[in-house]
Design a protein that fits this description.
The protein contains 6 helices and 5 strands. By secondary structure, it is α/β, with parallel strands linked by helices.
């Protein structure tokens, strides 16, 4: 139960922030309690937290509790919920099915929208260019990314990375949210 995780997250927060480490155990705890699927509409096995009007209050309480335990974990969870909401709102049922299946397997989603030095472009079925750092970079295995299309507009792509988390480059030392 989420209230029980608040003191657990708090006990890990100092070390996570000191090491600027990814809160992998916190995310695993959220996955184990079903929080990664809670944002999905009931039609896709969720509770509608953030994707239905009735789910707004429960999502607020969930984010408040996670943030009370460890704000950086809350930020990552908010990105996960935002990705689910975007696909639930603008995606196809098949796309939402795919996301729900990935969430049931414990995948954490993120949004990767900030352009880097060479903006990301979709050329055919291939992404070229780059993005700036995002919350969870190097650890997310699923992300929604914005890219310029060949037709000149912006597209939203669902990118899957291999399931092996990657360490952040040594030159980047992101700080936790204290």
């Amino acid at each position: 139960m989420l209230p029980d995780l608040v003191p657990v997250f708090q006990s890990r927060a100092v070390q996570l922030d000191a090491e600027a480490a990814f809160p992998a155990r916190n995310i695993a705890d959220l996955a184990a309690m079903g929080a990664l699927t809670a944002a999905f509409p009931p039609s896709h096995g969720g509770q509608g937290a953030g994707t239905t009007p009735e789910g707004a209050g429960p999502l607020l309480q969930t984010l408040r509790r996670i943030g009370q335990g460890h704000l950086a974990t809350g930020r990552l969870y908010e990105g996960h919920v935002n990705a689910v909401k975007l696909v639930a709102t603008y995606g196809t049922p098949a796309q939402l099915d795919r996301l729900a299946s990935d969430a049931r397997q414990g995948h954490l989603f993120g949004l990767w929208v900030t352009d880097g030095e060479h903006p990301l472009r979709l050329a055919g079925n291939r992404l070229q260019g780059g993005k700036a750092i995002c919350s969870g970079a190097g650890h997310l295995t699923r992300a929604l990314v914005t890219a310029e299309s060949e037709a000149g507009g912006t597209v939203l792509a669902y990118v899957t990375f291999d399931d092996t988390p990657r360490a952040q480059p040594a030159r980047i030392r992101l700080q936790g949210m204290r």
